[in-house]
Amino acid sequence: MLSKNTDIEGLVFGLPQSKSGEAVLAIKQIAENLKSEFLIPVYFQDERLTSWEARENLKEAGCTPDQIKEKEDETAAQIILQSYLNENGS
Q: Best exposed site among 21, 38, 40, 54 by fewest CB in 10 Å?
């Protein structure tokens, strides 16, 4: 849950750049709603292959299949954010 009492400078959303459809529209709508409510910028970052990269990273780290399943989304989100920061000089 986001709070209006935080120092959030922006939100980064993973977005599959090569796809369109309901999922992409839903993500963009959520981003627009948050942008309007919190008066902060939103950014979109290509998320293609981040789940695959997350699984591979977790395998290399020695995680079990259950651990991979548990940590895959979190790890993919970290990859998306780091990619955004790398590409935008932060």
A: 21
Amino acid identity, position 5:
N
What are the structural domain ranges in the chain? 11-87
- How many helices and strands, by DSSP H and E, does the chain display? 3, 2
Written as one letter, the residue type at 71 is: K
What is the CATH T-level fold of the domain 11-87, as seen in this structure?
Nucleotidyltransferase; domain 5 (3.30.420)
Would you say the C-alpha torsion 69, 70, 73, 79 has a positive or negative sign?
Answer: negative
Low-confidence ranges of the chain (pLDDT < 70): 1-5, 18-19, 90
